Every structure is written in C-alpha cells, then in structure tokens.
Amino acid sequence: VRLVESGGGSVQAGGSLKLSCVSSGYTFKKCGMGWYRQAPGKERELVSVFTPDDTTIYLDSVKGRFTISRDNDKRTLELVMNSLKTEDTAVYYCSHCTYWGQGTQVTVSS
Fold this sequence. Notes:
mainly beta, 7-stranded mixed β-sheet
C-alpha cells in the first residue's frame, strides 16, 4: 500500500485548503482510512477518518470546519479544511491500516 498526500501549503487564518491522498496497492476492507496530524512538540492525533463501516469521525476542534470525503473509483481520500486556525498548523498524514503517507505541511498564519 502506498499513500501519497498533496495539497498542503500556507494560508492565513480563516482561509481554506484541500488535502488529497491517492492510494495504490491493496486496500483492506477491515481498516478505516483517514487523516491525522502532528504539530511540533505534540503527539500525532486523529483529525478525521472513515471507519470500516463507513462512519465518519472528526476531532472535536475541527467539527463543522473540516469535511472528509473519498472517491473509491479514483482511490482518493480528501479533506476540505475551512476556517483554518493557527492551531491547525501541523504535518497532515493520510493513513490506512498500518500504512502512512509521507505527510504534507499545513501552516496557518495569523
């Protein structure tokens, strides 16, 4: 399984970004797929995921601002991030089972 993220960048607070993750190789139906992030000096945390039964879960602090979606035909997972805050600054990772992408940097400035 290979996961490749794109779409990170630098924006001002209140702005928007869309992250994309393209997967290749075998995918496991028993696993979910989603986005995590890690800010400097902090532990990696779940941002939003699809569970194996297709339920979506969001970190409380991003509810109402971030939206996760996927296109199974294109093997793509996306995360639309609106109303970005400085505390959203982190490296964002796509994950499936025990596999991780290389990460994409999101920087939100005040």
